[in-house]
Amino acid sequence: MRYRLIALDVDGTLLDDQHELAPETIDTIREVVTQGTEIVLCTGRAPLSTIPLMERMGLTGYVISHNGAATVDAATREIVHQYQVDVRDLEPYIDYCRDNGIHFDVNTAFGLYVDQLEGLKLEVRSMYEAFLMEPLQLPLWADLSEPLVKFTAFASMERLDEVYRDWSRWEQPFNMLRSGDFFIDLMHKQASKGEALHQLALRRGIASDEIMAIGNYYNDLSMLTYAGKGIAMANSPEEVRLAADEVTLSNNEQGVRHALIKHCLS
């Protein structure tokens, strides 16, 4: 069948391990678009680090950012849907991070704020540079002019395993998920890639069985199971591969291109 909408995760899926986008994959995506299929990047990234990829591929349309917490029109940068986080619920998590030396940031749809801008560690600054983000100093809650949509903790995989175990024992007001080996995200309970994709599909008049989703990590599970065709990358954890309808090649082998040729251009 012809899929009307294809949701693509970015890191570990569309991009290889060096955060590069293969020219051959771009060409294949453009060919799919000429058939009338809509491409939506569905990522844990912020809009400002996702829209440039859309522009590089010559695409317009929507990006589902912050793991589903904010959906943005890539051309106009209008926020078409977002889930707001209650800042009061974040306080215990912020205290935990401060007490245990865990770096964290809080995000509006377009802004990223850190606790201590001065003295950021080199690996933290390098991480933000890799994601095309410029951190700002976290102001007082009352001075934030836009809703918060996501809280992210950043540390080594081993430290985050400990953090995740600790926070899992708490009464959880958030959708808490591992969005990568080095990240834990906290969002509104209803916010997820799958739910954001569902809301966008309703807006576009597209049924779930007309949607293909391709992803590689735990934060992609909701969209892989919502879409009519959910495809996991070969570099996905076993749980993600088992939840998908099929598995394509890895992100370092242009697995997205392989899946698009198989299902959209054959």
Question: What is the gist of this entry?
Answer:
This protein is α/β, with parallel strands linked by helices and 266 residues long. The chain contains nine helices and 14 strands. An eight-stranded mixed sheet has the order 5-4-3-2-1-12-13-14.
List keywords for this structure.
266 residues; alpha/beta; Hypothetical Protein, Haloacid Dehalogenase-like Hydrolase, Chain: A, domain 2; eight-stranded mixed beta sheet; globular; HAD-SF_hydro_IIB; hydrolase; HAD_sf
Quaternary structure type: single chain
How much of the sequence lies in strands comes to 15-25%
Q: Helical segment tally? A: 9
- The structure class reads alpha/beta
> In CATH's first tier, which class of the largest domain applies?
Alpha Beta
User: How many domains make up the 3D coordinates?
Assistant: 2
Q: Predict the CATH topology of the largest domain.
A: Rossmann fold
Q: Report the C-alpha radius of gyration, rounded.
A: 18 Å
Distance between the termini: 11 Å
Task: Give the helix proportion (percent range).
Answer: 25-40%
Gross morphology is globular
Q: Which whole number gives the mean pLDDT?
A: 95
Described by strand count, sense and barrel closure, the largest sheet is: 8 strands, mixed
Which architecture of the largest domain per CATH?
Answer: 3-Layer(aba) Sandwich
Pfam families: Hydrolase_3
Protein name: Cof-type HAD-IIB family hydrolase
Keywords: Hydrolase
GO molecular function: hydrolase activity
